[in-house]
Amino acid sequence: MDFGKNFYWGVATAAYQIEGGREDGKGDSVWDSFTRKQGAIARGENGDVACDHYHRWKEDVDLIAGLNANAYRFSLAWTRLFPEGTGKLNRKGADFYSRLVDALLEKGITPFMTLYHWDMPQALQEKGGFLNPAVADWFGEYAHAVAKLYGDRVRNFMTINEPQCVLGCGYRMGVHAPGLQYGMREQLLALHNLLRAHGTAARVLKGIKGAEVGYASCGFTYAPATESEADINAAYERTFAFEKENPLGVISTFSDPVFFGKYPDAYYELEDIPAAAADDMALISSPVDFFALNIYEGRTVRRAEDGSIEQLEAPVGSPKTLMGWEITPVNMRWAPRHLYRRYGKKVYITENGISCQDYVFSDGKVHDSYRIEYLNSYLRELRAAAEDGVTKPAGYFHWSLMDNFEWAEGYKQRFGLVHVDFATQKRTPKDSYFTYRDIIRSNGGDL
């Protein structure tokens, strides 16, 4: 069995991680500021040049086409379009993305456009960022411009990437831009304003004829220890369980408001929830078309004899990525099932990949057997999810097309199918690039 004729095969990137190009009117984002803080980034690195995609985008589009991919997920740099976040459009920045979209379409590659992949304009952060209720209006203005500029050619949009990381890492732990460590009251205010921003943009983008809109979530998912009904239900319940100590790390904290128009019941038991306008939840739950999930690792649980949910520890010696993340392909089967069961929407896997210690061998090639094993094992489980006849995996986007700036890790972590020599910008397709190409050619049938 393969994945069906309408399945999207693609790769994913993010603007700050690959573009570079701090020119032609681009303004500063919170990541430009954060990378200049001493000790914030490994080895003091930054994304000023990154993969120089701003100048080498044609070569990168050719690499995507060489995979036989029919889709490409990328983000817009908000400050490339609006250097101050609002106000006058930067035409040079807008034209860059227009050329990129046209080149993708010419090669039969469907653009999946993300509006926000963590790069809040610094000028708006200085006005409070997600703590300012006006962020919904700022983001809505930006979305209107995106719809006007690209809505004649782009039909697939994601509003915000990984809000769990945006707020959990950026507003709670302070390890990502803007580097803040707020208490619960501010965290929940930022959460609500972020969701209002999502809803505002979703309404705008749904005004494009034929547009499909969602947002990209992350967070732990849980697989059952056995296929007993008790264990399956335990895994489902744990995947969406609300955590009062860390509500920002949970899938349901963000997705229940978007799909159901209400927060999880336990949210309302918190002491610090912000006041909400009467129409806020209607805005937040503006209709969306799919669930997008970024998944790298998960956990396994079972139903204990007393009815509680017991998490199983990974066996000693279980494989991990260079990031220290557990390699758990079985979660790729169960996560889409849980999501479809709860929200009833088709599921895109919008990020999945592995960091490895990749280098160019003496034969001029990059032999990344670990990534090949990872890719095959995760995709076999995704195919198993599709084979149940109920779950609707609609696409898979490998993270990432090429090695890039991995946030606080700098350039230490290499996630790409294509090796990048950051001193010369030379691109070298890894062995995994050709493996993924062959998987796409067979539509997953040869896994």
TrEMBL record:
EC number: 3.2.1.21
UniProt-annotated catalytic positions: E162 (proton donor), E351 (nucleophile)
Reactions mediated catalytically: Hydrolysis of terminal, non-reducing beta-D-glucosyl residues with release of beta-D-glucose
UniProt keyword Hydrolase, yes or no: yes
Cellular component terms (Gene Ontology): cytosol
Organism: Candidatus Borkfalkia avicola
One record GO biological process: cellulose catabolic process
Entry similarity comment: Belongs to the glycosyl hydrolase 1 family.
InterPro entries noted in UniProt: GH (IPR017853), GH_1_N_CS (IPR033132), Glyco_hydro_1 (IPR001360), Glyco_hydro_1_AS (IPR018120), Glyco_hydro_1_beta-glucosidase (IPR017736)
EC primary class: hydrolase
Keyword annotations: Carbohydrate metabolism, Cellulose degradation, Glycosidase, Hydrolase, Polysaccharide degradation
Protein name (database record): Beta-glucosidase
Binding residues for substrate: Q17, H117, N161, Y296, W399, E406, W407
Record's keyword annotation contains Membrane: no
A GO MF term: beta-glucosidase activity
